[in-house]
Automatic annotation (TrEMBL), chains A, B:
Protein name listed in UniProt: Dihydrofolate reductase family protein
Gene3D superfamilies per the UniProt record, alphabetical: Dihydrofolate Reductase, subunit A (3.40.430.10)
Domain Bacterial bifunctional deaminase-reductase C-terminal: 8-187
Source species: Nocardioides dubius
Pfam families recorded: RibD_C
Length: 212, 212
């Protein structure tokens, strides 16, 4: 059965997935790289990286994924929609290697890049975007790539089957908030938690009726 | 060296230490008992309880503590200060067995109860209250007993040496918020995290210059 999954989604103790202000120079605002250092230290990120619990979670990012849905704020800094030459953060061979659906108010023609990356720009509800992405993914799963608003919207709509959060032990105080409007969202999920020697906590939410 | 400690302070994933509304019937609002079920299932709470990682943390509550400071909202439901007969939630032999300093705008004479419990009602800043409590505690440590506002105020004032949080995998959406105004509070602390089979995550913050 096709599932809709979130992986390696990092938040602060107070639930922010990015600081502020977000800009070209500081994509995660005052959080800097602190939310993702745990991942950059894994073998998933570089061959010199660690191969323990953090890596075991990190590598699931691409495993069996046939399409990604991301928010406009992940594709570029504020204002990118007004710049026809903006092609994302990731160079000419982005790390997705699947169709990617960018949810935006500003539709534009698809952008085909190297390595099987094709960006589609979609003005659609979460359910509509997911139907499109599932079709593109064939038998494979769909990853919801963030940022916080998109993960929150898909959770609120009941569309997530598996959510992997990484709680980083910092308090950001302000930024892009995951939990807002998600009262009792844990219902229907099995939740597990494990601490890592790196200091982060991995939380998984697995929807009961889709657990294998 | 005397330390100021917080133990068994339970919060939801979104950082609430109580739901709402708080009342005599529902001291933790819509959270009910869900934030403290992990503790009620330990041997610390009852002889039939579990004796694993949750209990190992839970029993530290009273270990070496010579006084507690609590907020007005922990001592009673909204309005208790207008009721001269209110003597706390805990019956005639409360579980503190030390002097307890209740921070309140409404001072009243000390309340002496069984088992070494003496409640003092204090209109004071965190630093003033702590100085008083430390003197009463002798060589022992002082526990900051909550609620969220009191823990937050003492953290913001840099007065906490050891903080034990228990993150319960529920999303409350509203209530008494711990993290507000605590940007970068983790600085100066060593933070550890461990998941428990019960589903909760224990987080400890230990101030570096007081770690033994």
């Amino acid at each position: 059965m096709q599932r809709t999954r979130v992986h390696n989604f990092s938040i602060s103790l107070d639930g922010f997935a990015a600081g502020e202000p977000q800009s070209f120079e500081t994509p995660f605002g005052h959080a800097g790289q602190r939310l993702h250092q745990w991942m950059m230290a894994t073998r998933f990120w570089s061959e010199q990286g660690s191969d323990g619990v953090d890596n075991a979670f990190a590598v699931r990012h691409s495993d069996g994924i046939g399409a990604e849905i991301m928010g406009a704020n992940k594709f570029g800094p504020p204002g990118w929609a007004d710049d026809p030459s903006w092609r994302g953060w990731w160079g000419e061979n982005p790390p997705f290697h699947t169709p990617v659906y960018v949810l935006t108010q500003h539709e534009r023609p698809p952008l085909e890049m190297e390595g099987g990356n094709v960006f589609h720009f979609l003005k659609a509800s979460p359910a509509e975007a997911l139907a499109t992405a599932k079709q593109a993914a064939g038998e494979l799963d769909v990853r919801i790539g963030g940022g916080a608003t998109v993960v929150r919207d898909f959770l609120a709509a009941g569309l997530i089957d598996h959510l992997h959060l990484v709680v980083v032990p910092i308090v950001l105080g302000r930024g892009a908030r995951l939990w807002y409007g998600l009262e009792e969202v844990q219902e229907g999920f099995d939740v597990e938690s494990v601490g890592s020697p790196s200091g982060v906590t991995h939380l998984t939410f697995t929807r009961r009726d889709t657990a294998s």
